[in-house]
Amino acid sequence: MLSYIVRRVIGSLIVLLLITAIAFALAYLVPSDPARMIAGVHASAATLAEIRHKLGLDKPVPVQYVDYLGRLLRGNLGTSFIYDRPVVSLLKDKFLATLPLALAAWLAELLIGIPLGIYTARRARRSADYLVSALALVGLSMPVFWLGLILLYWFGFKLPIFPLGGHTGFMSLVLPSLTIGIVGAAYYLRLLKSSMLEVMGNDYIRTARAKGAGERRVVWRHVVPNAVIPVITYAGIDIGILMGGLIMTEYTFNWNGIGALMYEALQQSDIPVIMGTVLLAAVLVVLFNLVVDVLYVFLDPRIRCD
Amino acid sequence: MSPELLTVHDLKKYFPIRRGVLQRTVGHVRAVDGVGFSVRSGETLGVVGESGCGKSTMGRAVLRLVEPSAGRIVFDGKDVLKLTPGEMRRMRREMQIVFQDPYASLNPRYSIGKTLMEPMIVHKLFTREERMKRVYSLLEKVGLDPDYANHFPHEFSGGMRQRVGIARALALNPRLVVLDEPVAALDVSVQSQVLNLLEDLQKEFNLTYIFITHDLSVVRHISNRVMVMYLGNMAELADVEELFAQPRHPYTRALLSAVPIPDPDYKRERIILEGDLPSPANPPEGCRFHTRCPAKRDVCAQEGPGWREITPGHFAACHFPA
Q1: Which of A186, A239, B62, B181 is buried most, with the most CB atoms less than 10 Å from its CB?
Q2: Tally of structural domains, chain B
Q3: Is residue B104 part of a domain?
């Protein structure tokens, strides 16, 4: 069990190293010159060369990468061109704004998707299943900004129950998280339903019925615990992605978080910020993947005794 | 002779065949099509037949693990199909099943102890300590170390898992156990151990078995009476020695002629059946076996043979029994 966790941690570290390489490469893929960005259009060649030298851009690429890793390890992600602030403190502020939204959105997805998944699995191939599954597909197909605007129009403007944007406490969380919940729930529904249907075909479910277990017990004690693994896997990656920034949602609801920062940085070619947000998003996904891998140990005895 | 514990009358199970966008029912697979028999308390009724003949569905329908389409099942004087869901759950204490695949029939998330304890929890029997004690004694009865209670199914071999499956079936002291090919997935050496275990348990607890198998040597070893099924119907039913000594139905004769005999000098005539098993969605008219029967005559294609008692206790569905 301990060796399993150690192996997973080492694997995650390797993935993180690869991600730093990708984030680093980003700076070279973006068709813009950081020196020119800083100095402006009219700067002389000498000024540009001086800035390049100051930024270390005149060194060989591998050396630059090692320098970059060294700065990363010291918690230095560079300075934003636009805000002229350390990227780390910028990310920290925006992350704290995104965090409650990501958690609320994640909960909304789970609270809508999982009960519907169980419901449709128990009524598979009946009209209730077809109806709910079709509605879920509609939800899945709606663009976040469009659904967000509709919700804002009806429940922020026509019926002014919720604020029209910004983050001003609990009420402002409702509409954006509901938007993501409606769109994201369909994944959970489909995942749980197909997994449950597969488990229900097993003899041990027939065995449970033969024991005289009631339907509720069969579903909650035998089917769901065996079917929930893929859902947990996806939920882990999902929360990582959500925390890494919700570009569309934050933009629609004027939410000043990581997603909005990423959007802005992309528009302005603020490369240190782009690199920072990409790195943060990737680290979050890897981190929650690791959390899920460790969770398996407690959920599945087959891994526990490995 | 012991009293009859279970009587089955004209049991049918049809599965609908759905086609098209609207999933309309276009026909039925007649998995079990009019089966009737009785089982006496303490005996073993063997049920044989080739794959797809409906023997497993029949076993599950008797326990209402699949809902029969028609028929009457009387267990200990009670009409099983008329029970409410609550009464049916209580009835499950009396009738249990062991499945073929010991890998699929145990919940991988449940320790062995939890699997064995669950039936007692469901039926609210015993205190916590008594349940634990009973788990240990069940494990001992099926020849497993009581320490295994804390282990999980994936740690066991097929034979050990099947012992767990048997212990689970016995946890509620049932009277009837349907054994659905309980040794087919096991190694031959383990098969005989499990068969002996089943026999010992039968004697100890006065169990009644319906033993479903396609292995004729197994059925001969363990059964008191044998029922032969073909395409959802009964072909023949007799005491085991009588059936093996004097099979009446041409299908039974063909099956028995296929049993290998470990004697190289023994000469006998193999009856090779021609053609494939017809589809149970569209069974032949008349006698269902006539398309493959070596002894068929004109009447066989037109008229079903009916279920006839040829000698006392020996039944067959054939116009021209041997």
Answers
A1: B62
A2: 2
A3: yes
| Among A275, A271, A245, A289, CA closest to A37 | A271
Asked if the Cβ–Cβ distance from B122 to A305 is below 8 Å, we say: no
**Do the strands B95-98 and B176-180 form a parallel or antiparallel pair, or are they unpaired?**
parallel
Residues in chain A with CB shorter than 8 Å from the CB of B165 are 207
The DSSP element (H or E) to which B37 belongs, if any, is strand B24-40
Which range marks the domain in which residue B13 is found? Answer: 4-94+174-260+269-317
| Mutation target among B118, B131, B161, B181 for the A interface, most CBs of A within 10 A | B118
Q: B14 and B62: one domain?
A: yes
Q: For residue B153, give the chain A residue with the closest CA.
A: A302
Domain boundary among B173, B193, B223: B173
pTM: predicted TM-score of the whole model, two decimal places: 0.78
pLDDT per position as a tens digit, B134-145: 999 999 989 999
Q: Domain boundary residue among B149, B173, B197?
A: B173
Contacts made by residues B213-218, CB under 8 angstroms, sequence distance 24+ = B213/B46, B213/B47, B213/B48, B213/B181, B213/B183, B213/B184, B214/B48, B214/B49, B214/B50, B214/B51, B214/B55, B214/B181, B214/B184, B215/B48, B215/B183, B215/B184, B216/B48, B216/B255, B216/B256, B216/B258, B216/B259, B217/B259, B218/B183, B218/B191
Among A203, A212, A226, the residue with its CB nearest the CB of B122 is A212
Tell me if the domain spanning A87-304 has CATH number 1.10.3720.10: yes
Residue B27 three-state SS: strand
**CB contacts, 8 Å: A214 with chain B:** 89, 122
CB contact under 8 A, A226 and B109: yes
* Chain-chain contact of B154 with A210 (C-beta, under 8 angstroms): no
CA distance B16 to chain A (A): 14
Do B79 and B165 lie in one domain? The reply is no
pLDDT band at residue A8, thresholds of 50, 70 and 90?
Answer: confident
Residue at B274 is within a domain: yes
Are A211 and B65 in contact (CB < 8 Å)? no
Kindly determine whether residue B99 and residue A206, on different chains, have CB atoms separated by under 8 Å.
Answer: yes
User: What is the predicted ipTM?
Assistant: 0.73
Length reported for chain B: 322
Q: Is A27 helix (H, G, I), strand (E, B) or coil?
A: helix
* Out of A209, A214, A225, closest to residue B65 by CB: A209
- Rounded average pLDDT over B67-86: 93
Residues B79 and B194 in one domain: yes
* Confidence check: pLDDT of A53 > 90: no
Residue B149 lies in a domain: yes
> What pLDDT shows up at residue A306?
47
B307 at interface of A, judged by CB pairs closer than 8 A: no
What CATH code is carried by the domain that includes residue B245? 3.40.50.300
